[in-house]
Amino acid sequence: MPLSDTILTLAFERTTTDPFFAGYRLARLRTEQSLTLDQQAAALGLSLDSLVGLCLCRQPRDRADVEMIAARLGWESGRVADLLGVRLPT
User: Fold this and answer.
1) If 0-12 CB within 10 Å is exposed, 13-18 middle and 19+ buried, where does residue 48 land?
2) What is the pLDDT tens value at each position of the chain, 90 positions in all?
């Protein structure tokens, strides 16, 4: 992992094993798609720092959580919901 901050690295690594974090879902997707962290960031059009920030977010539970993450990334909420496997009521 090319993060320079040891604390950030440890926090990021924790997200991959704890379903509380969006990083858990993203780590599973990396495994399923055989991607490195850098490859996943590029595929999503994010910098590595932005992807790590996304991983550190709590896994969204409702529309408000999804919309907060979407606003932070500058994405549509549907894209965030699809990526993180969140079903939004219509």
Assistant:
1) middle
2) 555 677 778 888 899 999 999 999 999 999 999 999 999 999 999 998 899 999 999 999 999 999 999 999 999 999 999 999 999 877
Written as six digits, the tokens of 45 are: 């059009």
Domain ranges of the chain: 1-59, 60-90
Q: What is the DSSP letter of 16?
A: T
Q: What is the DSSP letter of 57?
A: S
Q: In this structure, which amino acid lies at residue 45?
A: G
Closest CA to 67 of 59, 58, 76: 76
